[in-house]
Amino acid sequence: MRILITGINGFVGRHLANFLQNNSIGNDEIIGIDLNTADFYKYFQKDMGNIKLVNIDLTDSLKVQKLIKEFKPEQVYHLAAQASVSESWKNPIETFKINVFGAINILESIRKYYAICKFLSVCTAEEYKIMENNGDAITEESMIYPTNPYAISKAAMDFFSTTYFMAYKIPVFVSRSFNHIGPGQSDRFVCSDFAKQIAEIEKGLKEPKIYVGNLAAYRDFLDVRDVIKAYYYIMNKGKAGEVYNICSGQKYKIADLLDILLSFSTVKNIEIKIDSSKLRPIDNEVIYGDNSKLKKHTGWTQDYSIHQALKDTLEYWRQKI
Fold this sequence. Notes:
- By secondary structure, the protein is an alpha/beta fold.
- It has two domains: 2-181 and 223-249 and 290-303, Rossmann fold, CATH 3.40.50.720; 190-217 and 251-286 and 312-320, UDP-galactose 4-epimerase, domain 1 (Alpha-Beta Complex).
- The chain is built from eleven helices and 14 strands.
- Helix 1 (11-22) packs across helix 8 (224-237) and helix 9 packs across helix 11 (306-320).
C-alpha cells in the first residue's frame, strides 16, 4: 500500500504515522509531507522503516502534482492545516490559503494522475451551526454555518472534497473532527495549555497561577489515539462520499477538565485567573457530537477515557519541560 500523509510532523500526523507503522503488514510505503520535518524523529517511537519525509508547501501546485504523479498514492490522509481558531482570526487570508488551496492542489493532482486514490479530507466540527442550548448532539446532517475564519476555510475544503467525489468519482471521505486531546499537543489548545502551565508550576518555573479563557463552554474531547484510529477505520472500512463525525459523543465543561488536571497536580491551591487574550470574539456555549454513524459504518470503538487522555497530556508536559 502506498500511503501519503500530509502534516506528518503535526500533533495528529505523528500519532497516525506510529499507528500505521504498528499496524503495517510489512509492505506499506509511506511518504510524509510537512513544511518542516526536522524534529519528526524525536517523536517517532520506532525505526522509521518505510516512512520517507518530504518538505513540500502544499500551496505549490507544481510540486504537489509532481509528487502525486510519481508516487501514485493509494491513500491520502490530508491532515495538514492551519488548525488554530485564534490564529485564524489574526491571519484569515493565510488560513484560507493553506487550508483550501492546499487541499484543492492535492485533489486536482489526484484527478489528473491517479483518480482511484482514496482521499481522507480532515475537516472540523467548527463548521456546524450550533443551535441555542437545545441539548442535542450534532449529527452529520446538522446545518453548516461556520462562525470563524478557520471553520470557514474547513467548510470550503469539506465542500470541495465531496464535489470531487460527485463530479470525478474520486473515493473521498470527509471527517468532521471535534476537539482532540493527548500527549504531544501544542499549548495553543486549551487542555494542553492547562497541562503545560501546571507542569511549569510544579517545576517552580512560574507562580501558582493558571491563566484561562472561557471555562463555561462545553466541548466534546477525544483522545488523539482514538482519533487516528477512527481515520484509519474510515479510510479502510468507510463509505466513499460520506461524512463522519469524529467525537466521543460526550460534552465536557472546560472548568471540569481543568479540575481533573488540577487533581493530578503535585501543587495544591493553584489560583485561576482569566486572561482576556484567550477569549474568542465568537464562542459557542455547547458543542458535542453524535458518533453513531462512524460506529455503524466502520465498527470503530473508543479506547481512551477523558481521565487517561488528560493524565497522559500532563505527563507529556512534565517530561518536556
